[in-house]
Amino acid sequence: MSASRVLIVCWMALAVLSSATVALGQAAATGLVSIAILTVAVAKAWLIADGFMELRHAPRLWRRLVLSWAVVLASVIGIVITSAV
Question: How far apart are CA 81 and CA 60, in angstroms?
Fold first, then answer.
C-alpha cells in the first residue's frame, strides 16, 4: 500500500475512533465505559505512532517504547479510576 493510502486509512480510522470516544462519553459513566474509552485512546495512540509517525519502519526498541507508553499510561489511569470507586 502506498504511503498516502496508509495515511488516508489511518486518518479515517482515527475519525471513527474519535466518534466512538464521543459516543462512549455520552453513555452512562461506569467503570466499563471508562475502560472502553481508555482502550480506544490506546488504539488511537497506536495508529498515530504507526501511521503518522511511521514507526512501523523504525527499530524495534523505539517502536516498542513509543507504543508501550500509551498502554502504561492507560493502565495507570485505569488503576486510579478503579481504586477511586
Answer: 31
Q: What's the grid cell of residue 84? A: 477511586
Q: What is the DSSP string of 17-33?
A: HHHHHHHHHHS---HHH
- In the chain the first and final C-alpha atoms are separated, in Å, by 46
In the block, which residue shows the cell 478503579? 82
Q: Is 30 exposed, middle or buried (0-12, 13-18, 19+ CB in 10 A)?
A: exposed
At 45-59, the pLDDT tens digits run: 999 988 888 888 889
Strands (E), 15-74: none
CA atoms within 13 A on the CB side of 18: 8
Q: Model's pTM, two decimal places?
A: 0.82
